[in-house]
Amino acid sequence: MKRTVVAASAAVLLLPLSACGGDAEAGGGSTVTVTVGYQSRTINTVTAGTLLRSLGSFEKQLNALDDGVRYKVSWQDYATGAPITAQMTAGKIDIGSMGDFPLLINAARGKQLDRPTRLVSVTGYNLRGGLNTIVTAPGSELTSLKDLKGKKVSTSVGSAADGTLVRALQRAGIDPADGIEKLNQQPAVGASALAAGSTDALSQFVAWPGLLAYQGKAKALYDGARLNLPTFHGVTAREDFAERRPAVLEAFLKAQAEATDYLNEHPVDAAEKVAKATGLPAEVVYLYNGAHGIATFDPAIKPRLVAALKQDVSVLKSAELTGDVDVDSFVDDRYVKKALGAAAYRDRLASKPAPAASEAWPEGASKTLTFTSPSALLRHVARHRDALRAAYVPDTTTGTLWFADRAVWVADGDTLLPFVAPDTARAYIAGHAGARIVSYADALERAS
């Protein structure tokens, strides 16, 4: 019997329980609706959401199943992980993707409501924590975390960005509970609050900090990679769905692997596809998802990420958002191992992120140019500034990629060094006599 898969939009968010991973008679056969919750603008989940959907990879994998079933995929788009968890524990979403802190809440809520979920793969990660950034308004006089004491800071409580804020403040000697006035806001609301001046700073996850910086609406105050703690996004599935439909889950994970390989092999085209689907500038998508972007994409559940997840539990407990979470029982890599094959999975576990590098994206080009140093990039920008879509440089200390024209530049003799945030630049200057901060225009002139 020839079968087809239908990709359904999420016009109706709350589907009947029987339609999610359930069977319905249709023309003598059966129809199974698989409901996928994703976050289109949280672009480190694109290999399990936006890019995966645009490539049609999941539907193709389902079509390849020889089980006599007609599959229908319902894609449901959300701004954060919390509503995905709510729908999963209500039995209305089968597979979802979200950041590390929301994943823990997903695990806790699933156990609490007797609808257990399992972490089945990883999407994008950064081993130092660079996926989260604290930003301020362009004209703000705040230059370090210590300046946030007594100020208003917007974040999404329970998110990875909130975790970064809490840990960063603690390291700066500020009590996150009463040293600041924390505003619990959705990312878009927080961005508007920053623009209106009703909050002093914004701590958020991708792609908000990069987007606001690119638009000239914010500047970086703190690079989350200074924590040197891994942050990641992953895929979670309802346990009952995984046990009832293992072949469907494996098909999803095979499709995710295909989308991952596509992103890694065609980073510019992938950025353009995601930009088209989300309305985000492709230059911002590439900052995170590019060849040397802030995120590394790999579905393997690396032990270092699991260890970081265990450390995250204490942050959520202190905020009274969860109790204890059994991370070991939540993590289940059986399905992704089977989907990829044991040997390929071992190779992915052993893989490492690409080294940081400076890049320029010429107008009309399908590939970026890579440079051996930030100074070499600046020389190219000085000669071709009207013919470039974007230029990127890695932070000298953390490796976090940032827009060259938004970076903090330091001249150390004849060497020009970029940093995401001013406090990281000052930390470098403190250990290097004669080094000083210079403007971007000055850096371009010095390089040329």
From TrEMBL:
Q: For the SsuA/THI5-like domain, which residue ranges apply?
A: 87-270
A Pfam family that this protein carries is NMT1
- Name the InterPro entries for this protein: SsuA/THI5
Name the keywords, alphabetized.
Signal
Q: Where is the signal peptide?
A: 1-21
Top-rank lineage group of the source organism: Bacteria
Name-wise, this protein is ABC transporter substrate-binding protein
The source organism is Streptomyces dubilierae
